[in-house]
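Aggregate trends can hide what the representation actually does to any particular protein. This step matters because it turns folding into a mapping between discrete strings. For completeness, the protein is quoted in full, as a sequence line and a line of structure tokens:
=====
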Amino acid sequence: MQGQFGVCAMTTAVRELLKHDRATFIALMDTLYLRLPFRGIAPPPTMIADLTGQAATKIPPGRPDTVDFMLARVLGMLFKVADEPTYNAQIAFSRRWNPNFGKATGSALDVFDLEARLLPDLKTAVVNSAPRLATQAAWLAGTAPAWAATPFPPALEEELKRKQYWLQQACGFGIDVVDVVVAETVPNKQWTITFKYDGAPRTLTVTAGGGPYDPLKVTAAVAGAVYEQGHLAVDVDGMLVLLKKIIGFAEAQARGSWKVEGEIGAVNTTLTAGGSSLVYAGTTASTELLQAKRAAAVARTGGHPYTVTRFMGDPAPRPAYYGMATPEPTHWVALTGPIVDAGTHWGLPLWSWRENFTVEIEKGHLGNWVYRWITGRVN
């Protein structure tokens, strides 16, 4: 159900409704399809048009999760109607994530900068891409085989991999550094990086600054309503409003403001209480958890046993986005079972990005992976 769409908080809640409260889930479906009020909250009149435009932009053709995508965003729209002051606070939180939040449809979105020292590498990538230009159209159409090697010199390739975190947050897709064509469109001034991601063609534009030491600006033009209207990063206060006021969960409270590891007992008590009890983790390590999720997906689709992903120490610090510190939390995940004492580590069974997976976090470091717990129950 969940991809890189900026709706992790809403998605975890929809999952809970599917498990424990089908009547409320059906009511949410009625809001989407029949435009009926949800728990007394009337949907905005432009909801269907906004959602259709977003789905067309964000979900590649053939993907089965359009309805799931819309359901999660409906909750974001209802949030705005039910509690606009808190919603506006979440917009401010979202803009700490990404100053592009709320930009007009079709705007060129600033996704990240590249250091000026990488300009020669970019020009080398243009030269390396030259033989590919003849088959570019067929490759984009899916009628030509993929290329074997990356055209990027190692330093530029690593920087693009590192910076794609911000591309995913801004645009909902990452970058393929192998099946890519790099071209110079304005001599010594502008370049394009063209690739496919999730089956859809994507283009990044790189523009040189005015001086030799100015950073290279990387932008992406995204057509359609991508921001606002349900696309929302949610902080701890926003999560509590979403769960209790918008959806009507019977109970939800934040834990761990002083010491996250000190709340493990309370977390496990909730998780073993049965019924509709729930625990969410507001994590500060979305990149590492996404790697663990992908390892689980590879194991599942390949039919071989899944090895738990074990992490030592703290998560890697996030690069500052246009000078702004990364906000907390960066992602919401659901715990699917009690936290396990694994000797030197804590074992956390998680659900996110449509996958069940387990991570082990070194003891003494859990507070740098989990910002807050949310415990509660649906009904």
